[in-house]
Amino acid sequence: MIYLDNAATSWPKPESVYQAMDTFMRQGVGNPGRSAHKLSIASGRVINDTREKVAQLLGVDNPQRIVFTKNATEALNLVIKGILRPGDHVITSSMEHNSVMRPLRAMERKGIELTVVGCSAEGTLDPADIERSLRGNTRLILLTHASNIVGTILPVAEVADITRRHGVLLCVDAAQTAGALPVDVGAMNVDLLAFSGHKSLFGPQGTGGLFIGEGVESSLEPLEEGGTGSRSEHEYQPDFLPDKYESGTSNTVGLAGLGAGVQEVLNIGISRVRRKEQKLTQLLIDGLASIPDVIVYGSKAAAKRVAVVSCNLRGVAPSDIALHLEEEHNIMCRAGLQCAPIAHKTIGNFPEGTVRLSPGYFTTEKQIRSTVDALERIAHEAEKGKLEHH
Predict the structure, then answer these.
(1) b or e along 81-110 (b: 16 or more beta carbons within 10 Å of the residue's beta carbon)?
(2) Contact present, 95 and 119 (Cβ < 8 Å)
(3) Nearest to 75 by CA among 93, 45, 99
(4) Is the pLDDT of residue 390 over 50?
(5) Which of 23, 30, 60 is closest to 44 using CA atoms?
(6) Of the four listed, 15, 161, 189, 262, which is most buried by Cβ atoms within 10 Å?
(7) CA 340 to CA 102: how far, in whole Å?
(8) Is the distance from CB of 222 to CB of 244 less than 8 angstroms?
(9) pLDDT tens digit string along 220-234?
(10) Which CATH class is domain 15-268?
């Protein structure tokens, strides 16, 4: 099997991830922070160790500023619903995932003002368009770091310069970049950064988190309140990090796996991950571009994108292509709108969407060549009218 759906969730995971989760479930299942016995203490240590590893990877000086959530979507909802109030203005881009657009549209109904800055057909963003959209009541700018449709890397650092000058908060959706690109919140000057644990950080599903910059927590309300294991004598939510945003029993077994996954990324080195994925992406783009009637979306330079490649075959539905890839060639990919309809409108293929091929660090060059060959055969069959429609 060739797995090219790493933008949705990475697979396979490193062996250490499986082992960490198995060891935790067999030897250390205590409720972290809730008891004084050794199993509870060990569970708390697992979470703290993972927090420290994530902080190291993201360039965060204080690990307590990493708050764990069940995914990037929850982290983004925390930001959007915790910061914005009726009358506030927020700016985003036309390449966003529904994890950004849906909560923003929900808040729009409650009285916030929303500006969606248009991107190019390649998915690129001009920072000047962000600056021109600023208003006196602009509270937040929320941008994806890299598109989950065409992989385009947005100019987050340049936008951060704008937000700093104007006193506006900047939140970055790093679901597609944490673990795949160098991410340093200090160098990037971002106030908030949401990340997914189950993609390029090699962790299990049900893990993710949010970096919260210094002082931002004073205006960021939690999504929920409840037991934290701290200040139990009070009926009010603690106001310190990370407890303010981590109510209820944690997904400790998942965080054990995430810690092992992040350690693998640290051991390999982000630069090495980036070099390999960039090479695979360029090989895929070049191979697809050589097939007649195949359309490749986004920049043709892998250096400008993460390992996410969307394509289509003229005259054939993306769903049919994906089905043929799986049934005839055992290649797993994702067809359709990939939870980002506004991005597909931007690049011009809504409502059909695309065939998305997303290699990962464990993908091989041979698998990429086999995928290109498979698509070449599908294109040839379509040209001859021999492609069966399912």
Answers:
(1) bbbbeeebbbbbbbbbbbbbbbbbeebeee
(2) yes
(3) 99
(4) no
(5) 30
(6) 262
(7) 10
(8) yes
(9) 999 897 866 777 777
(10) alpha beta
% of the chain with per-residue pLDDT over 90: 87
Q: Residues 201, 178: contact at Cβ < 8 Å?
A: yes
Strand partners, 358: 5
CB 71 within 8 A of CB 210: no
Amino acid at 345: K
Provide the CATH topology of domain 269-383: Aspartate Aminotransferase, domain 1 (3.90.1150)
Contacts of 261 by beta carbon, 8 Å cutoff, 6+ apart:
13, 14, 16, 17, 179, 197, 201, 202, 203
Note if the pTM is more than 0.85.
Answer: yes
Helix, strand, or coil (residue 321): helix
Q: Where are the domains of the chain?
A: 15-268, 269-383
| Secondary structure class of 334 (helix, strand, coil) | strand
At 386, the pLDDT band (50, 70, 90 cuts) reads low
Place of tokens 């571009």: 289
In sequence order, the β-bridge partners of residue 66 are: 211
Q: Tell me the per-residue pLDDT of 219-278, one tens digit each, with 9 for 90 and over.
A: 999 989 786 677 777 777 788 899 999 898 899 999 999 999 999 999 999 999 999 999
Q: Containing H/E element for 271?
A: helix 270-289
**End-to-end Cα, the chain, rounded Å:** 21
pLDDT at 330 over 80: yes
Q: How far apart are CA 124 and CA 44, in angstroms?
A: 42
**41-64 mean pLDDT:** 95
